[in-house]
Amino acid sequence: MKKIAIYGKGGIGKSTTTSNLSAAFSKEGDKVVQIGCDPKSDSTKNLMGGKGIPTVLEQIKAKGDDLKVEDIVFTGFGGVLCIEAGGPTPGVGCAGRGIITAFEKLEELQFFEKYQPDVVLYDVLGDVVCGGFAMPIRGGYAQDVYVVSSGEMMSLFAANNIATAIKGFGKRGYAKLQGLILNKKNIENEDEIVRKACEEIGTSIVATIPRCGDIQIAENQGCTVLEALPESEMCEIYRALARDMMKVGK
């Protein structure tokens, strides 16, 4: 089972990237799970026709001890299994603790043993790397970590923070930073800015996603590009990245 965590600051396009990667993996013939680890709980909406799904935390509150694994797993485009960890009411409670609770419930319900996926993608908010948001790294859930960033200062600042956390956990045998996914915003000298940032961080650009209107067209339909526009050149970019990710460690 390939276990991948995708990190990035809010609004950088990590959920769009993760959803399109999930769709790409499914097109490669893999059984895929995408787990949203953001309190906004919108990671999987483009795999679910633009609709939100009940979160693990919501279902725990509603069903208590009667909760079944089928109550928190929903099938989206390409057969991708979609899960949203969820978060507390804004201003009340800790979003990181919500992720920990959701992960513990998945273990209790023996989710991975039951579904036996080929690929698990964790979509994780990277503005902060507290205990809960670091769960995919330090809890042994993810093997490989990728950071989505553009050439904008704040996204690179977040990428550096995430990389620092990963390196700290990596010394204990946890997940490894495999590289940065450049999600272009078409700012001046963007490629060079990000290349230099990667040198400072100690990583490299593993894929470049060009700014393309096809992504927005697909999102307006509540879809991934692979579903809405299967002939788009963007589809092969995501599929090539998915194939490269599967090769890591082999």
The count of helical stretches stands at 10
Determine the N-to-C terminus distance: 12 Å
Content of β-strand: 15-25%
Compute the average pLDDT. Answer: 91
Protein structure class? alpha/beta
What shape does the CA trace take? globular
Low confidence ranges: none
Q: Secondary-structure element order, as H and E?
A: EHEHEEHHEHEHEHEHHH
Number of strands: 8
Proportion in helices: 40-55%
Strand neighbour order, sheet with most strands: 3-4-2-5-1-6-7-8
Kindly provide the radius of gyration, computed on alpha-carbon positions and rounded to a whole number of angstroms: 17 Å
**Largest β-sheet summary:** 8 strands, mixed
Summarize the structure.
With 250 residues, the protein is of the alpha/beta class.
Structure description:
By secondary structure, the chain is of the alpha/beta class. The protein has helices at residues 14-27, 56-63, 95-108, 111-115, 135-138, 153-170, 190-201, 213-220, 225-228, 233-247; strands spanning 2-8, 32-37, 74-75, 81-84, 119-125, 144-149, 176-183, 205-209. The protein has an eight-stranded mixed sheet, with helices on both faces. Helix 6 links the parallel strand 6 and strand 7. Helix 1 (14-27) crosses helix 10 (233-247). It starts with a strand and ends with a helix.
Explain the layout of strands and helices:
Blueprint: E1 2-8, H1 14-27, E2 32-37, H2 56-63, E3 74-75, E4 81-84, H3 95-108, H4 111-115, E5 119-125, H5 135-138, E6 144-149, H6 153-170, E7 176-183, H7 190-201, E8 205-209, H8 213-220, H9 225-228, H10 233-247
Parallel strand pairs: 1-5, 1-6, 2-4, 2-5, 6-7, 7-8
Antiparallel strand pairs: 3-4
Helix pairs in contact: 1-10
